[in-house]
Automatic annotation (TrEMBL):
This is SDR family NAD(P)-dependent oxidoreductase. Belongs to the short-chain dehydrogenases/reductases (SDR) family. The keyword Oxidoreductase applies. The lineage of its organism: Bacteria, Pseudomonadati, Pseudomonadota, Gammaproteobacteria, Oceanospirillales. InterPro entries: KR_dom (IPR057326), NAD(P)-bd_dom_sf (IPR036291), Sc_DH/Rdtase_CS (IPR020904), SDR_fam (IPR002347). The keyword Oxidoreductase applies. Keywords: Oxidoreductase.
Amino acid sequence: MHSFQNKVIVITGAASGIGRALAQAFHQRGAHLALSDINMQGLEETRSLLSGQGQVTLDVLNVADRAAFSAYAKKVVDDHGQVDVVINNAGVALSETISNMSYDDMEWIVNINFWGVVQGTKEFLPHLLQRPEAAIVNVSSIFGIIALPTQGAYNATKFAVRGFTECLRQELKNSSVFVTTVHPGGIKTNIVRNGRMKTSMTGDKSLDEQAKDFEKMARTTPAQAAETIIRGLERRQRRILIGGDARLMDRLQRLMPVRYSDVFGWVLKKLG
């Protein structure tokens, strides 16, 4: 997809972070936007930062709610007349050991991070297939490629997004819909502060301490992440790695598919 002029772009989780940056970048390129989040105030702030001329609609959406997602997809088509790109970006974080993790926490993150992607894909896919050129962009994580302690639930959802999306890509290879999986590394967003961070990878730390540690390690800005995603769409990259840390971890996992955990264990010990 080489031009986004007059394309209708659906972005979930658009009230902040990568979702907001994507909205800004696409709007500057002449796209129309259907933005959703659970936070309407954040969506309004996103709209205030847009500098393009395209139509923008804002909707409160809980991506874990299947009925709400179905109604939302119909509303987007009614509002815009078409859908060209769907970016399933909404996601949350959970840090806890598997032995201590509650079923409630597990269901919470699975419903948002995985079912939100499934529902965003399935509800919009019939509309995308009607377009001469379309795309589905599902945001996984570098934690959809490697696994680390206390990230069992998050790993499970992001590995699931990766598997689901790579299967979908193969199923749609002869269609007009391009499919890609995005694997961000550390991005300067509020995902840690807004998550359920109960046990730290690097020891017994408060939420504020964990957030500060994350902010130190996160080297990539949301704007940089958005530009990488758009460049990946333009180049039809089937896997989009964001940040030097993501590329490094991906290479390490390829070189040491089992023993990479020993390397990260040593790093985490030093950080603790």
